[in-house]
Design a protein that fits this description.
elongated, five-stranded mixed β-sheet, Heat Shock Protein 90, 2 domains, 12 helices, alpha+beta
């Protein structure tokens, strides 16, 4: 969206344009994801190690991190933090920083969260000072005030969704916990916590390897391959394993900027093409001139994989964002996976024999 003149009244008049449905809970949850996205940016930048989300008894939500704290220097005569909470930005982030992580499908920023809240309280712990400011329906109740000295760093935002906007302003704790568990696989060095009536902690230091292992599979396990490499501005992450046997199923989970792409796209194409080319590199004489489509079918037999790419300006298919269409992604993923699969086939004789049997038309065991 490109709406440089959007103000609070415009957001409150048509909230679904910015956060999705306001009557089924999805818009409410997206408000949390907007705050969490800022925390993930801090983590990617190396300045945040933990984040927590709490559903409070009064219906409000608190999102807290231990990053640097939102900047407080003046911009256009007001503190940067106040500017971010009261101004629309056409870029993915208010200050144009990169990299930036989207946790939901919109990416509209904290201004929209503030505008759709009955009240919002901001606390900043930055450069030795604890700051505080309160807003009501997007409007500051007073200036950003320095409260006291502190040794902490980070940002804490508590907001109460406006019941005049949301017909049922209650958060689905199960949806939030499930998404945070999923995020833990993609940001393995970040500690995430979620509290409603119980406290949940999510930390998956093994990353995507743990993602694969969460679903038991039948058949003989043929090993796990993981890759993580940056190609230009595209970060490629993937984990793959194979099962051998008549009941071995195949599946590929795909994500772009940590958002699930249910219809796959260029990152899935790149994954399968990279595996096919890697097989051709290792078994050149046996493969002969078989088409890539056939080789992709062979390497996909019994494959269970997850692939995630992170990039600044992804292109999605219309009318939804369920299919990634960025052409450069296919080449980036293919190259990374191809090289890794060659090494894996040279070291993993069981997996290589599995592929050879399929090439020769023999049934799996």
């Amino acid at each position: 969206m490109n709406h440089p003149t959007i103000d609070i009244d415009a957001i409150r008049k048509r909230p679904s344009m910015f956060i999705g449905a306001v009557d089924d809970g999805s818009g409410l949850t997206h408000m949390i994801w907007e705050l969490l996205a800022n925390t993930l940016d801090e983590h990617v930048g190396g300045t945040c190690r933990a984040v927590s989300i709490s559903l409070n008894e009064d219906g409000s939500v608190t999102v807290q991190d231990d990053g640097r704290g939102i900047p407080t220097h003046e911009l256009d005569g007001v503190p940067f933090a106040q500017k971010a909470l009261t101004s629309w930005h056409a870029t993915p982030t208010f200050d144009g920083h990169a990299p930036h992580e989207h946790v939901g499908g919109h990416g509209v920023g904290i201004f929209v969260v503030n505008a759709l809240s009955t009240w919002l309280e901001l606390e900043i712990f930055r450069e030795g000072t604890h700051y505080r400011q309160r807003y009501e329906r997007g409007v500051p109740c007073g200036p950003l005030e320095a409260v006291e000295s502190t040794h902490r760093s980070g940002t804490t935002i508590t907001f109460l969704p406006d019941p005049t906007i949301f017909s049922n302003p209650w958060f689905n704790a199960g949806t939030i916990a499930t998404r945070m568990q999923e995020l833990a696989y993609f940001v393995p060095s970040l500690r995430l916590a979620f509290a409603d009536r119980r406290k949940h902690e999510f930390h998956e230091p093994r990353g995507l390897r743990a993602f694969l292992e969460r679903t038991p599979r039948s058949g003989t396990h043929l090993g796990t391959l993981t890759v993580e490499e940056r190609v230009g501005e595209i970060l490629v992450e993937a984990a793959m394993n194979w099962q051998d046997g008549p009941w071995a199923s195949s599946s590929i989970d795909s994500y772009a900027n940590i958002e699930r792409t249910t219809d796959g796209g260029t990152h899935v194409q790149g994954l399968l093409t990279g595996l096919a080319l890697g097989l051709r590199d290792v078994e050149g004489s046996r493969v002969r001139k078989r088409p890539l489509k056939q080789l992709r079918g062979i390497v996909a037999r019994g494959l269970h994989a997850v692939v995630c790419v992170r990039l600044r300006d992804p292109t999605f298919g219309e009318p939804t964002k369920s299919r990634l269409m960025t052409p450069a992604v296919a080449k980036a993923v293919s190259g990374v996976v191809r090289h890794a699969f060659v090494v894996e086939l040279q070291d993993n004789l069981e997996l290589r024999r599995h592929c050879i049997r399929l090439l020769d038309g023999e049934p799996t065991r």
